[in-house]
User: Fold this.
Amino acid sequence: MATKNKKVKENKYWWLKHLILAIASAFICVLLLFWLLKGFTRHGKSLDVPDFSNMTIGQAQKLAKSNHLRIKITDSVYIPQLHAGQVLKQTPGAGSKVKKNRNILVTINSMVPMMVKAPDVVGYSLRQAESNLTAANLKVGRLKYVPDIATNSVMGQAYRGRPLVPGTDIPAQSEIDLTLGLSADNCWTRIPNLIAVPYHRVKSELTYNSLNLDRIVFDATVKTYADTLNSVVYKQEPSPTIGKSARMGAGVTLFLTLNKELAEVNRKNVHAKDQVRDTTIALPKDTQEEELKEVEEEAEAPSNDDEPEL
Assistant:
C-alpha cells in the first residue's frame, strides 16, 4: 500500500521534474552558446594596432601580416618631399584595440607623381610670381638675388638647379627657385616674428619678407607627417626684428614642436621685448655697398651643379 501511495505521489509531481529538467537544459544551452560565441569572436583577445606611419606600403603590409591584420589603401596624395608609397595616415590609429584580420585603412604618398606645366613668371614681381606658382600647384623655392634696378622683379626661374622652360611638365608641389633683382637703395628687409606660427604658413611668411628658409628642426614631439602638419614654431634664428636689418635673401632657421603652450609663451616673451626696444637699424651707405658687392660676387660665382637641364 505504501509503494502504491509513493507512485501516486511521484505521478502527481511529474510536471515539476520535467520543468526542472527543462530549466537545467536551457541553462546549459545558454552557457554553451556563450562559450561558442566567445570562441568565434575571440572576446577579450583583441590585438594592438602597430604604428605604420613613415613606412613604405610594402613594409606596412609585411608588419600587418605578422600581426594578423590587413592593410587596405583608401587614398593617396602626392608630397614630393616624401618617399613614394610612404604611409601618411592610418585608421584605426596606432595602439588601438582590434580583432584579428581587421582591415587597417591607410593613406599613402602617391607612387606616381601628378605632373603640371610650369608657368612663366619671369618679369613678374615676387608676390605675383608666388600667386601664379600656387595657382599652378607649385611652390616658391630658394630666392637668389642679383644686382638690378628693380628689386624683387623675377629675372629667372629654375628647377633642381637648372633653368626651367615654361610649359615643361614637372611634379606637382615642386619648388621653383627664383632669381630676383636687388637694387642698392632697396635691399633690406625685416625678420618677422614666426613664433607660434603653424608649419604650413612659415614658408609663405618668409617669402613675403624676401627671406629664405634655411633649415627646419623638429623636436622630439614631432614623429609623423601628421605631426609635422600640426607643429608650430617655438624658436627661430636669427631673432625677429622690428626694422629692416636683414639683407633680402638671408636665411632663417626654424625650430618646431607640437607643444603649443611652449610656443605661445615664447611668442609673448618676444613680443614683450619688442615693446621695450626698437631694433630699427639705419645701415650706413658704405655697409650697403659692401653687402651689394657680396651679392655681385655670388651671382658671378660658377655653379657646381651637374644635374641635367630640363
About this structure: Confidence is low (pLDDT under 50) at residues 278-288, 303-310.
